[in-house]
Amino acid sequence: MLRRNRSITGKVFTKPSIKPQHTRKIIRRYHLLIFKKDVIYRKLSTIHNTVINDENISQFNKAPRAMIPPSEQELLSVANETSMVKLYEILRKIEYEIVENGGLAKYQIASLDGQETKRGSDSSKWLFDNVPELKEHKGQLTALEIGCLSTKNVIRKYAKTTGIDLNSNEPGILKQDFMERPIPKDNSDKFNLISCSLVLNFVPTPEGRGAMLRRFQEFLHKDDGISMVFFVLPLSCITNSRYMDKDHFIKICKALGFSVTHYHEANKLVYMVLKWNGQTSKRKFAKTKLHDGPSMNNFSIIL
C-alpha cells in the first residue's frame, strides 16, 4: 500500500507503508543485525588489539563483498566464533543486508509506520504529557529532533522543530549526522530542547556514545529558561547491561552538567528528561563491569 503526500512545494510523493504485522519483525531483525555487528567488532578489536568500528573497518575487512544476507545459523554462531576469516565473512553479509539489500530502508519505513499516531508510538507524546512546563511555553520553544522519522510528531505542535536523520525519508527532515552538525556560533542556532529517541543505542562504540552525550550542551540554550534533553533507549540498555544501570547513567549525566528530572521505565523502553544545570565535572567513566550474567548485553558509555 502507498500513501500519497505533498511536499512543501506541492509536489506529490509516495511513502511506502508496511503492514502492521510485519513492522515489529523488521525492526527486531534490524536491531539484531546491528547487535551482531557490534559483537563482531568487539571480537575483531580483541584479535587486532585495536578498536575497530564503522570508521575504520574498511582498513581491515578484505573479505569479498557478499551477495546474500547472513543465515540464522551464522548469526547464532557469532557469539562463539573465533575464526577471524569467518567473522569477516559474516560481517560482509550483515553489511549486505543492512545497506545493499534494503535493510536500513525497510527499518526506517517500519519505524516511521510505528511512530504514527494511530499506533500510539510517538515518543514525544510522552514527553509533553509528563513535562507540563513544556506545554506552558507552547510556540516559544525551539527543538532539535535527532533521528527524526516524521514531521507529524507531537513535538512540532509545541516547538519550532528542526528534524535531522542520517537517511531522511520525507521533506522537512534534514539529512544530517548530528556528530557532523556545525557547532552553533550564537544562540540563534541553539535549542531549548533536544530529542534523541532510540538513537544513542545505534552509535556503534562506547566512546562514540560518550562523545554524543558531551556534544549536546553545545547546542542548548543555557540562559533561556528551558534547556533540556529528552532520551529514549531500549529498556535493556539500562536494566540488562553488564556496564550500565540507572544509577550509572545518572552519574554520567551529572558529570556532563545535567540533572535527570524525569525517568520512566515502560515495557520495552526507558524515557528520560535531562535538564541542564551547568555543574559539570572532569570525571572520567571507563567501561567498568557493574553486573554480570549469561543473557546480559554490553551496552556502555565511555567519557
TrEMBL record:
| Pfam entry (one) | Bmt2
Report the top EC class in one word: transferase
Sorted alphabetically, the Gene Ontology cellular component annotations on this record are: nucleolus
User: Which Gene Ontology MF annotations are present?
Assistant: rRNA (adenine) methyltransferase activity
Q: Where in the cell is it found?
A: Nucleus, Nucleolus
**What residues bind S-adenosyl-L-methionine, as annotated?**
147, 165
Q: Which domain of life is it from?
A: Eukaryota
Query: Is the keyword Transferase in the record?
Result: yes
**InterPro entries for the chain:** Bmt2/SAMTOR, SAM-dependent_MTases_sf
The EC designation for this entry is 2.1.1.-
Keywords, A to Z? Answer: Methyltransferase, Nucleus, S-adenosyl-L-methionine, Transferase
Q: Which HAMAP family match?
A: BMT2 (MF_03044)
Instruction: Write out the function statement from the record.
Output: S-adenosyl-L-methionine-dependent methyltransferase that specifically methylates the N(1) position of an adenine present in helix 65 in 25S rRNA.
Q: Which family does it belong to?
A: Belongs to the BMT2 family.
Question: What name has this protein been given in UniProt?
Answer: 25S rRNA adenine-N(1) methyltransferase
- Please name the source species: Cyberlindnera fabianii (Yeast)
